[in-house]
Amino acid sequence: MNPRINYILKQTIVASAFICASALTYSCQSNSADQTLPILGSREPVERVVDGKTIVDTVYHQIPDFAFTDQDSQRVTQETVAGKIYVTDFFFTTCPSICPKMKSQMLRIYEAYKDNPNVVLLSHTIDPAHDTVAVLKEYADRLNVETAKWHFVTGDRDSIYDMALQYFVGVQEDDQAEGGFAHSGDFMLIDQNRHIRGHYHGTEQEDVDRLIKDMEILLKEQQHEEK
Amino acid sequence: MKKSRFIVGFFGALALITLTQCFTDKQNQGQKLYVQHCLSCHMEDGSGLRGLIPPIAKADYLQTHRDELACLIRNGADGPMVVNGIEYNKEMPGVHTLREDEITNLLNYIQTNFGNNNKRYTMTEVEEMLDICPVPHGK
C-alpha cells in the first residue's frame, strides 16, 4: 500500500476511535436524570422475621447522634440536620495550609445553595481549645455567612475526633504539621438519613464542582422519596 | 578538523541552552515562590478570603505600604490591617528563609500581576528595606 495512504488511514482510525470514545462518555454523563449516588461505608445484613418468613435487610453505616455548639452558642445536633442533606468538613481557624482553600471552596457551595432550606453546611474545628464560640463567631462574621445555613461547631475534643472517624475524615494532633494539626481536606456529603453519599477533595475546584452536581442529584432523590 | 568543529558547536549549543534555562528559571522564580508560600491563603487569583485574608489583587496596600512589604514577607504580620477599605485581623506567618534576591523576585511578581501594575523593586532597594526591619515582637 502507498505509505501516504496508509498513514492517512491510520490517522482516520485513531480520530474516529477518539470520537466514538468521547461520544460514549458523553452519553453516559448526560444520563444524569436517573443517576443515584452510592452509600459509602460498611454494610451489614440484618435478618428479621415477618409473618414466619425471614427477611434480610441491609443496614448501612449511619452517622450517630451528636451534640456540638455553633458560632451563635446554639446546640447543633442530629435534629439540626434532620430531613436535610449536609456537607461537612474538619478544619481549624489558625490553619495556615489547606483551610483557606477549603473555606473558599465551601463558600462556593454556600453561594450555590444559600436559598435552599434543605441544605446545611457543618464545619467542625479540630482545635476546640483555641476555637471557642467567640473565635468561630468572628471567623463566620468575616466570611459573611448565616449561622442557620453554615454552622461552625466546637465542643468536646474527643467527641469531635470520634465524629471525624465516623465521617471517615482523617484528623490528628501533630507537632510536625503546620499549625500543629494534620487533617485531610475532605468534604463529605451526607443525606437526610445520615448516610455518607460522597467524598470530595475540598481543595480542588473540579472536585467541588462534582460535589455541587451530586448535591443536585441527592436533592432530587430526596424529593422523590417524599412523594 | 571537522570533528573538532562539531564538538565546539555541540558545546556552544549546550552552553546556550543552559544559559537560557537559567534566565527562564529566574523569571519564574517570583511565581514559583508565590505558589510555594502565598497561594494557599491568598489564592491563585490573589483574591484572598472574604473578610479573613486580604487580597493581593488590586490591593491599595501594595502601593501605600510599598516600603514595608519586604519585611512583611520575611517576618510576617500581626494585628489589624486595612486593605481596600476593609479591616483584616489575622496573623500572617513570615518566611524567614527567603534571601534578598528571592524576596525581590516575589515582590516584583506580586506588584506586576493579579491586575497590579505597580513599580518594580531593585535588589539594592529591597536589601536596604530589610536592613531596617522593625524587630518582630515576641521573637
From TrEMBL, chain A:
It comes from the Bacteria. Transmembrane segments: none annotated. Pfam families: SCO1-SenC. Residues 1-32 form the signal peptide. Keywords: Copper, Signal. The keyword Signal applies. Residues 57-220 form the Thioredoxin domain. This is SCO family protein. It comes from Pontibacter populi.
UniProtKB/TrEMBL annotation, chain B:
It comes from the Bacteria. Pfam families: Cytochrom_C. Keywords: Heme, Iron, Metal-binding. The keyword Iron applies. InterPro entries: Cyt_c-like_dom, Cyt_c-like_dom_sf, Cytochrome_c-type_DH. PROSITE patterns: CYTC (PS51007). The keyword Ligase does not apply. Signal peptide: none annotated. Residues 25-114 form the Cytochrome c domain. PANTHER family: ALCOHOL DEHYDROGENASE CYTOCHROME C SUBUNIT, BLL4482 PROTEIN-RELATED. This is Cytochrome c.
